[in-house]
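Hello forum,

I keep getting stuck at the same step: I have a sequence, I want structure tokens, and every attempt I make locally crashes halfway through. Rather than fight my setup again tonight, could one of you with a working pipeline run this one for me? It's a single chain of 491 residues.
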Amino acid sequence: MGLIGIQLVVSLLMASIMQRLAPHCSFARWLICNGSLYRFKHPSEGELCALAGKQIPKNTKRERRQNGVSESKPLTVPKDIDLHLEAAPIKALDALVLRFFLEYQWLIDFAVYAAGVSLFTEGYYCLVDGSKEVNIGAIWCLLTIAFSLKVLFTLMSHYFRSEEGGERSVCLAFGFLTLLIAMLVLVVRDEYLEFGLEPGFANLFDNLEIFLRQQGWEWSVPFTKLTVKLGLAAFCSFIGALLAFPGLRLAQTHLDALKMTSERPMMQILLHASFLSPVIVVLLWVKPITRDFLENAPLAKQSVTLMSSSTFDSVRLWTVVALCALRLAVTRIHLQAYLNLADRWVQQMKREAGRIAAIDIQRKVTRIFCYLTVVTLQYLGPILLMLFSTLLLKSMGDYSWGLYPESPRVTPAVRLAPVVLSPSLDEEGEEIEEDIQATVARVSEALGSLRSVFTPLFYRGLFAFLTWWVAACQLITSLFGVYFHQYLMQS
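Reply #2:
Ran it on my machine without issues. Output:
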């Protein structure tokens, strides 16, 4: 197995480019600071006083004395003043006040470069047989998934630290709900949900038993398949809790985006298709609806094969990637719909009676803009999880994109042969070369043994289930969010 090759060189080059270009050229910064998104500026106290028909106070806070105690009284204005917020394009300097901006910039830029490395790896495997090399693109994809989960966990921990609004209860409720759903899904047979978890785990246990016996260890299974599935269900519950607020936020921005594009029917069609894309992903792994129908379609009392099994696998991968690309294409529409909440809140305030402190108006308008990157991470995080899980499913599961003939890769047998070293030579240069060759041989043998234990059959089941589960969690949380914002909030 080759350790150092063109893949590693390209990977190191990409990491160096990412480090040097991040301060000057950032895709994450361009996404929100290229001038296409508009934020609303909060009104000054002078503007509020002018609209209220009063003079600007000399001090920002007026003092009054009651029972010998000096108290500060904030400036208040009527709620029904004719207030109109000023819109301004978001610039790079404005991003300095955004919450979690550094985490957002790092994740999005790393995902872009990881997609580039994965694309190069796929092209490299088209030209060269890379079965004996480490798949560097898969490592980048795995790191992107890990970073996405870490950022989403950071956002969820922010909600857990909040003492207001019951955000902690929402995360726990969705965690327990998805735990029950995951346990139900894991007992469904492969004839209905074709993840391939059962044959994948069976293959893993068999290979692991052979591998450990060759090392001289008496191995017995320390945990049953039921224990493994319970652990997987717990991980699914963790993902469900992470995607709770992203799903609720997606539902809110989707409804607001539909109102914002009420005069653009084609854009509304794209928004509906983007919102319902998890439904298509979920149905792609329901075997009676998709694979069985396409391979044995009833036509004129006969069964006609519309698509072969390998072609269906390729089409399924392309479909998931295309749906992720569709969601990425309408990102700015959702972000602008979120920014418009400031103006909507002001319009709603103007229909109310009473007075409000000027500082409360300024805080509300500013807070909406400050949490822009949080909303962006909640929107893009699930997309990155689904996209890079699909890329891992393709590369680690030995699938094909269907663009070129795929040569079958033979998984090496499970063995670990001892490395025989030649006697040490007198010359110092030859001794160093012998040590390097021995080290490379040991590492290559170890990686080859691990590759024989974790086979493509196991990776197919694992990453297919992960891709499907992310889509299922998005579907559950976003549909509940639509119901919540459409009916519960209005009642």
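The first helix runs from residue 6 to 21. If your local run keeps crashing, start a new thread with the error log.
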